Amino acid sequence: MHALLFVIVAIVLYVLSYRFYAKFLADKIWQLDPNRETPAYKYQDDFEFVPTEKPVVMGHHFTSIAGAAPIVGPIVAAIWGWFPALLWIILGTIFIGAVHDFGALVASLRHDGRGVADFLKDLLGERAMQLMYVVVFFLLVLVSAVFVHVIAVLAEAFPAAVYSVWIEIPLAIFIGLMVRYKWKVNLYLSAVIAVVIMYAVIALGVQYPLALNYNTWVIILLVYMIIAARLPVWLLVQPRDFINGIQLVIALSAATIGIVALAVIGGGQLAAPAIRIAPAGAPPIWPFVMITIACGAISGWHSIVGSGTTPKQLKNERDARAVGFGSMLGEGYLAVIALLTAVVGLGVAGYSESYAAWGAAAWPAIFAQGGGAFLVPLGIPAVFGAAFFAVVAKSFAMTTLDSAMRFTRIAFAESTVTFGIPAFFRDKTISLLPGWAVIIYLAMTGYGMVLWPLFGAANQILAGIALLAAGVFLKMMRRPTGYYIIPFVIMIVTSMTAMVHQIFLNYLPNEQWALVVIGGVIFLCGVGIVIIAVSTWKEKGVEPLEKPGVEV
Questions:
Q1: How far apart are the C-alpha atoms of 156 and 173, rounded to whole Å?
Q2: What is the pTM of this model?
Q3: Is 33 exposed, middle or buried (0-12, 13-18, 19+ CB in 10 A)?
Q4: Cβ-count burial of 249 within 10 angstroms (0-12 exposed, 13-18 middle, 19+ buried)?
Q5: Cα–Cα distance, 484 to 395 (Å, whole number)
Q6: Where residue 105 falls among pLDDT bands split at 50, 70, 90?
Q7: CATH homologous superfamily for 3-540?
């Protein structure tokens, strides 16, 4: 089997799903209305609620969801062979992940752009909302702690990529100011120039790499994330995400062209077996393929983005199809390319060495070196190709870090009302501090990639709940619910099984008490929400929505 077949199958199926399935959901299930006023206009404040053109919103949403997770997950999951990972990435993306993202975004648009935990109160009551806030809070701090580790590892392993990633920040701020103050500039041209500058700086990094140790990078990132999360969304988040959206298109195009070139010269054969049932030290293939590959197939993190910053920027409700469903398909394709770096780019010897046992695969090196191998047929030296892919991975991880800290602030500020926390905690600076304190603890205590399975299980529990919320909302609007309830059942069973496995067979035996507590709390809150939902659905029935601020 050849890498090119992966690419062809993924592209064809993703295009068909957007053309037909996404259109069906948009027109028949959600009934999107271009004349409906969006929250961006209704509550415009030029800080969070900012009416924004679709390409910019899509760039922000795409790069916020497509951080390093759709790169890390497929590479780690390659230990079970290429077939389980590829099957889950393609089918999961189309029938579960894109459906989930689309539903979370539309549900938030219809609830004044409120977060998924906040609008759950309208669907299942205050108790469900309180439990959901707990799940969201812990997921967000796990996301942040994991990505602090991921970025620090990348920066230490690939010092040649450091300058390119950090120069993007002033470039993005400059573009944000130009757009904000309506200077006569072409947004696309400005972003392309920024990307060119980033890539040009790779040569400087190769010649004079900035080598700092892991702990130093952790501290720098912890300080950076709280500063970035406090800035207005238009100043850094929007323009940098737009730049990264263009960068991702370039990276995926380059990788795809490289794979075609490999096929022309007779390369690109799969180096990994189709399936490995029980690799040394690895957890069971089910549910952990579906947990390890979260972003890239389905991710609860996306429901936070889709009910966080994105609905506060959308100018037209019809754009939700492209932004919600379409962006998830793009992330799915990124996951396919990431998988190929491991099962093709490493070669047979590289795969055998990297996947001899669970935990042996150094994913940053695999993505950079495996991806760089795709560019060699294009005449790009391996050292520059590796640095290029390291820049891509780190840039997207940085956008996720920014968004996760911002969403932690938003979620905590929203939760102060229901939990009776004093109003001054809603301040845009003070509301950052509780989540930041937990992130500092998790990042500084050396858990590292030990957090990944916990993050994956928590992520998929939240994804299941978000699917359930969308299903309940559809039920209240007297619309078909099976497109959401069937994926909900699949995800909640899978994620709950994984969480129990991790707590009792991993964290408890190793006396990792903080992870036992976090995992246990998330599990119990998830069970509580499901019980409330089943009770509401089955015993009391679901009444049509007639509430202020809720559009049907």
A1: 26
A2: 0.88
A3: exposed
A4: middle
A5: 32
A6: very high
A7: Amino acid/polyamine transporter I (1.20.1740.10)
